[in-house]
Amino acid sequence: MATRAAGQTGGGEAAGEYWSEALKSFLDHIPVSSVSGALQPSPSPALEIKLDGSVPDAIDSMYHSNVAGAVIVDDVRTSFGKFVDRDIGFLEFPSLLLWALEELDNMENGPGDKNSDLLSCLKQHPRIAETKIAWLSKLFLWEPFFPVRSHDTLFHAMLLFSKHRRINVVPVVESMNSSVTRFVTQNAVMELLLTSSGLEWLDKIADKQLSEFRFYASKPISVYSDQTLADALHILSKEKIGIAVIDRKTRCLIGSILCSELYRLLDDNSLFRNRKTLIAEEFMKLKRKVEDNSTENSPAADVQSVLSLRPGQSKTTDRPVTNRKSDTLKQAMEKLTASRSSCSFIVDEHGRVEGVVTARDIISVFSPPCMDSRIDGGTFFSAALEQTGCRVEQGQMIQNS
Fold this sequence. Notes:
Region (Disordered): 290-323
Largest sheet: 4 strands, mixed
InterPro entries: AMPK_gamma/SDS23_families, CBS_dom, CBS_dom_sf
Number of helices: 15
Protein name: CBS domain-containing protein
Number of strands: 16
Distance between the termini: 8 Å
Pfam families: CBS (PF00571)
Domain CBS: 315-373
Mean pLDDT: 76
Strand order of the largest sheet: 2-3-4-5
Shape: flat
């Protein structure tokens, strides 16, 4: 008996129900609360940014709270005095800072002392200082807010990551309209998937070489090592993940500049002030020196929140994560989760970049297709269906007799 994918005509409701139940049988027994990467080390709730807050204040608050993202809240009360839909969005530190830097660089002869630090300059810039968080929704600087509850499952979280490409973290709430206290990240999902290493349903996909996947053809965005930090930041403002730094002569990968490193512009004011003359290679040398000094002079870091702005002392960020095209998807997953990085550059035997794989790319391999499209027979879930007595043929799900 053949059934059609959910969202299509002809028994779509029944097909959608059957499709969901078949898939949930694999991941719906894993509650979000069991994802170790989602647990915050502190009982404190997530940082909240109000709609009427200013951009510099939001950057300042996230920086000094050491968080890479904050929940946007709108204090709307009903006639009963209760909050309704307080949490309306998620704001990421890199996106906000990159927007502000673009505004600064687009201003000709604007206010601000050349010796001022970044936050002071932002507060002296009228357009930035007067811009409210509410206005940024028009620029799509907010991430969608789709919370899950602690008893929801990994399957639920993977659906959100796969269907909404702008989601990088999924907030966890205890009940409707309650404060966010935990988050599920893409790396946490990969980490949990890796716990099934050795089982057929995972290895059937994860043991394939990277060259066998469609994302292998995606070329990474790059800058030459002699281009300025300002050039790299401008590209980052559009890419929002990371860029490869390439030696102009050899065309080899010598480093990377990631969104997760932007806090350094506030840690070291000279980086901000010299961003238009400092070249990418010099920036990488400086951050490597900082990493080496902090490792030598600081005690071991405590357990951190998954949204910590600064990495722990045990994590090195000066060298990019790399893989070879002959590496397996599982090997890429292991490198990304170990480094807490968002992307790995695929290089050849000479160190030249051939492609890039992101955490989102990997999750999409293991995630179900969109419910309103034809079922893709090439994903992990197709193999999972076969183990429940189903198969996929030409976009249709067929139950074996």
